[in-house]
Amino acid sequence: MSVLVYSESENGKLKKSSFETASYGKALAEKLGSKLICVSFNCSDSELLNKYGADKIIHVESSSLKEFTAKTYSYALSQVIENEDVSVVILSSSADAKYLGAYLAGITDSSYLSNVVELPESLNPFIVRRSCFTNKAFSSTEINGGLKIISISSNSYVVKENNGDGIIENLDLNEVSTTFKVSNVEKQSGKVTIADADIVVSAGRGLKGPENWHMIEELADVLGAATACSKPVSDMGWRPHSEHVGQTGKPVASNLYIAIGISGAIQHLAGINSSKVKVVINNDPEAPFFKAADYGVVGDAFDVIPELINKLKAR
Ligand SMILES: Cc1cc2nc3c(=O)[nH]c(=O)nc-3n(C[C@H](O)[C@H](O)[C@H](O)COP(=O)(O)OP(=O)(O)OC[C@H]3O[C@@H](n4cnc5c(N)ncnc54)[C@H](O)[C@@H]3O)c2cc1C
């Protein structure tokens, strides 16, 4: 039996999350006494997975897999599952992977569990710990059935180098027919996305208006960070909805989250619980966000941010 990791890529290169899922997959394969197989689609650097313990790397090249659709990707994965005698499939927690997990479980008649944060507590029965209620609680959940599919919460497992045998195998797949075809995907270029970011610089209504966001963008540039915002900011059209963080927006699991002029409402905090270090800049010492912060600066953003940018540039 094997553990199969679906290694996500973007623009033909492995995503950072692929090293985390491979590290998790290796540790699980060792516990199960099985092999780790990593599969990637249209990816030019999949051999890097060797460094994270892959015993086999399956490289699938297919024009059907040029753009993500749950149907084509789950069909391709189901072919690999059929060929390789797989017991557990591991996915990342990206929006695509979560969608894929549900679809794949449907077509392979297996069980799927998202938001897994640790290696299984028990293998037989197969019990995993997962976060729930927007990371406020954890549950130990048993997965029944033969094939198990799990998605791992980002930043919940440490990336660990572990040399594998890494036989690389190429697999050609037939065209997969779909009811619809993705004709064009436009992605923002040169920007770090919230999901992949180590650092996120986020701002709220305290910034007063969209004309002041150049400060946030400059700070993000200096730090190599992604930009984000509170819900009212995107509702008012100051920033795109793709940047809205919180219970009704995107979850953030970065190593550093800098919140500027955001009050710290419970719905906002729900989206950033998984971030490791939280820094708050707010001119109101009573702002609720300070209670959730690791570091706080009480001050006017319009004074603090330019100063911070200057200090960081000087370093
Ligand atoms: C069902 C529901 C779902 C929601 N989902 C979300 C969600 O997903 N995400 C989300 O963010 N919100 C969400 N909200 C809204 C949430 O309740 C808050 O209203 C919102 O987060 C407040 O945004 P804010 O902190 O930017 O604005 P405000 O609450 O207006 O806070 C602005 C902050 O900026 C500070 N400030 C002002 N001037 C300065 C300055 N010059 N320098 C420094 N600091 C300054 C103020 O002291 C204040 O703390 C939701 C609400 C509901 C009811």
Report a brief summary of the structure.
With 315 residues, this protein is an alpha/beta fold. The protein has helices at 17-32, 70-84, 95-108, 213-223, 231-235, 266-269, 289-292, 301-314; strands at residues 2-6, 9-10, 13-14, 35-41, 56-61, 86-91, 111-116, 126-132, 137-143, 148-152, 167-172, 199-203, 226-229, 256-260, 277-282, 295-298.
Order of helices and strands, N to C? EEEHEEHEHEEEEEEHEHEHEHEH
CATH class of the largest domain, named Alpha Beta
Strand order of the largest sheet: 7-10-6-1-4-5-11
Instruction: Please tell me the overall pLDDT.
Output: 92
Written description of the protein model:
- The protein has 315 residues and is α/β, with parallel strands linked by helices.
- The protein folds into two domains: 171 residues, Rossmann fold (3-Layer(aba) Sandwich), CATH 3.40.50.620; 116 residues, 3-Layer(aba) Sandwich (Rossmann fold), CATH 3.40.50.
- It has eight helices and 16 strands.
- The strands form four sheets. A seven-stranded parallel β-sheet has the order 7-10-6-1-4-5-11.
- Strand 8 and strand 9 form a beta hairpin.
- Helix 4 packs parallel to helix 8.
- The longest helix is centred in the first third of the chain and has 16 residues.
- It is globular and about 60 Å long.
- The N and C termini lie far apart (51 Å).
- Flavin-adenine dinucleotide (FAD) binds next to helix 5, helix 6 and helix 8.
